[in-house]
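For reproducibility, we list the full input for the zinc ion complex.
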Amino acid sequence: MHDLVIRGGTIVDGTGSSARTGDVAIDGERIASVGGKAGPGRREIDAAGLLVTPGWVDIHTHYDGQATWDPYLTPSSWHGVTTLVMGNCGVGFAPAKPDRHDWLIGLMEGVEDIPGTALAEGIEWQWESFPEYLDALERMPRALDIGAQVPHGAVRAYVMGERGAKNEPATADDIVAMAAIVRDGIRAGALGFTTSRTLLHRAVDGEPVPGTFAAEDELAGIGRVLGELGCGVLEMASDLMPEDGELAWMGRVSASTGRPITFALLQNDIDRDQWRRLLEASERANASGARLVPQVSARPTGVLVGLESKAHPFIDRESYRAIAHLPLAERVARMRDPELRRRILGETATPTQPISWLVARSFHKLFRLGDPPDYEPAADDSVAAVAVREHRNPEEVIYDILLERDGREFLYLPVLNYADFDFEPIREMLVHPQAILGLSDGGAHCGLICDAGTPTLLLTHWVRDRRRGARLPLEAMVQMQTQRTAALYGLCDRGTLAPGMKADVNLIDFDHLALSAPEVVFDLPANGRRLVQKATGYRATVKSGTVIFAEGEPTGALPGRLLRGAQSA
Ligand SMILES: [Zn+2]
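The corresponding predicted structure, in tokenized form, follows.
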């Protein structure tokens, strides 16, 4: 008698092989058999007509704070994620000297736009060292498995104090001390070391993430630890400028340590083919002994412009500011008043936030997102194009869209990965054999971006719905967020449905799988704001043999754990 039998589903096992109909039997936390007809189970789920896949493994999230107070890690868990990796991009909360707590919060708030007030109320700081942070994570019951990485920003400030925080060069002694901390972290179970080399990532005080300008001796000195221990991934967000220099040091460090380096790869508007050169350069480095892994996204990095998000074109105007404090419904009612509309549209204001500048200059790239959301709109549908067609001022078009759905509509500004106004470059990146899927940024960018639903979009948009170009095969899209992401982090006990593997399983009503429109909720600690996106069609998510979500609702079961290091099959 098995503990659980998932009966008669369409099994897509994560290896890329063709879907087949059959049963999945589970004993305890492990899969007992896949395919064919299984014997009876103490519990059985009828999966006829449903997809049965491994649970998703999302390797690029920022739940480092949330994981200390929220056992469910939404929005990712609403999208079938059963394992996630956090601590990306050089930011996190350990190691942490007691007098650095506020500073670490300011770093996370600045880089990842997670409200500082929420982090300050939510985090209990039961640690100073990285191993103590892992112990604290391990003590807390949770629904999903999580893995943590050692963030350069925190390590640098811990070792070098203000010199580190202010991006001064590291001395040889500093590097030895940082390497020792990373060694302790990896030995205790961290899955990697992460760093940021982009000027887009800044603390609330405007200072780039500590480590942004780190020289090769620092990166190589820390990277050497991963080589010594023979485990761990080096993850990095970088502007990749100068391109050749960045690729060169990554190639050297990866080749000399034998460890993979994964770097964020996105198309930008200024150098539209840079991504192609980077893929080629990465192929060349890999041909000569490195293991560079371009980390790519399934959709653009899209800013959501709305009355409840952090940006819209009227946010700094005097007549809007006078009503900005009102609850949404009241604000919408006031904004519908023709007299106020005329006043707000007639005013000008100097933008106070960089994002407002960007929005003001991007009418050609602003689109009504809609419900269901359309992430691949045509250039003809931009605010600028609509305004020309309808002989209207683009700001009027924006104003009226913001009031749709009772003020809950968003305008979508695809900042990266949309220079060509379609997903063709993304498709090419996704199918590149050396690329890995990531960059969902689950838990981050709470006021402007919500791409944690990317796992669902891979199936809905890429496999089923895409109209403006080629679709991608179901089996490959499942493999991309299961076996392949798990393998990069050495999580060899999961990512496929096979006997002996962790029983992490999604049951999906593929025909009805859908992304909901993003929405703003105030459910972080201290009533902190965040953008979330739900999905319908996940009938059940099983973690380690236990159903954690059924019909989109948590069952209350908390079988998840902290992962300590790579997991053998
Ligand atoms: Zn990130």
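The radius of gyration is 23 Å. The chain has a mean pLDDT of 96. Both points were considered when choosing residues for closer inspection.
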